[in-house]
Amino acid sequence: MTDSANPIREIGVALLGLGNVGAGVIKLLEENAAAIEARLGARLNVRAIAVRAFDKRRRVEVDASLLTTDIEGTLARPDVDIVCELIGGTTDARTAVMTAIAHGRHVVTANKALLAEHGREVFAAAEAAGVDVYYEAAVCGGVPIIRVLREGLASDRVEHIHGIVNGTSNYILSTMTATGRGFADVLAEAQALGYAEADPTLDVGGGDAAHKLAVLVGLCFGTAVDVHAISTEGIDTVEPIDFRSAERFGYVVKGLVIARDHGHAIEARVHPTLVPKNWLLADVPGAKNALYVHSYALGASMYYGAGAGMLPTAMAVVSDMIEISRNMLARAAGARAMARPFAQGQRPLLPLDDIRSRYYLRLAVVDEAGVLGRIMTILGSHGISIAQVVQDESAAADGAATTHIFVITHEAREGNLRSALREIDGLPVVQRPTVVLRIAGAGNNGNAGKQ
Ligand code: HSE
Description:
Layout: E1 9-16, H1 20-31, H2 33-40, E2 42-50, E3 67-68, H3 71-76, E4 82-85, H4 92-102, E5 106-109, H5 112-129, E6 133-134, H6 145-152, E7 158-164, H7 167-179, H8 183-192, H9 201-204, H10 207-221, E8 231-232, H11 240-249, E9 251-261, E10 266-276, E11 288-295, E12 299-306, H12 310-329, E13 356-366, H13 371-381, E14 386-392, E15 402-409, E16 412-413, H14 414-425, E17 435-439
Parallel strand pairs: 1-2, 1-4, 2-3, 4-5, 5-6, 8-10, 10-17
Antiparallel strand pairs: 7-9, 7-11, 9-10, 11-12, 13-15, 13-16, 13-17, 14-15
Helix pairs in contact: 1-12, 4-5, 5-10, 7-8, 13-14
Bound molecules: L-homoserine.
């Protein structure tokens, strides 16, 4: 309740971009206006929406007088307190965010690419200008994982994380697992259903997940990493035969981001992974996202939900607006009020050769006496210990004389495995480069990633 003597405070908001997420933000601000006002004790008022073109079809009706193509003018408006960047990409969005900060505006962004590539610059400028930059929607869409890492675990120390942070890839892999169909076939269907973009490269190639991982590493370990140096493998190379054999060994193929703090360096990688069937991550279906966090005091915790979509993502964006508004009302706004990502500067990434993992190998070999023995001898000479071996006659490779050998190793150093495989793949009896997939979880390394 307000009266004319105490008019409710209005907080001015400008949206940059009115695509799916922008439309969701408008919808949520309208539909939940009363609840938001009651919770905040103030009103979020959209003052301008900057768009590229006026005549585009939108998923929401807006007052035409709010629309403008003048981004500069919008950022300079004195009645705008919070700028919500929903342009995407790292060029125009970077200029807009840096200009907004220079004008003393608080910023909400869903842009993981911008934060992964220019996060230090953005947060340094925000700190100098005394403004907030919030980005809950940048990782796992509507799942409030940024708040969990920034606030919920503020007194804890994250040791390692395993996550499914790209819904498109998870949808494709889940469908391949359930149906036995190939990647290209399932991708085409996902595109027809609107689960995958016309150009799916960023999603299925792992780039989107690497951006999100860089943001998570900043929060979990207080350090920036070079996102372009994160080892990133897409899901497009996994074949139906690997799904079947993973299943036989007790695993499900998932696209994971994995990060671990080694002190002097950060381990961070993105790749298709064999996940033990008894892990919660193995059961994450369709386009859903999930993050498993292992921290010193809490131990294991899991966060799960919609990683994309109009309303889930908009929900995260509007919650950020509310939090910034609360900071403003409490006169606590400014980057110092936030847990500062990247606070400890930049630490190097652990070279991929130095990571330790268990491995799944699929070797296409000539089916004759002594072949298996030679391969095992080479693996042994590089310190690779074998956990399981299966030769599957029904899985003949290129012809009757060629067969597949499937190997599960104990935990090993990746550099040793690569050296062994260079020798193995050079043998005349080996028909094609060996397929290698990493296995998540405990080897002889305690409870790494166990859930
Ligand atoms: N394209 C992303 C995904 C959502 O498939 O998860 C936005 O980051």
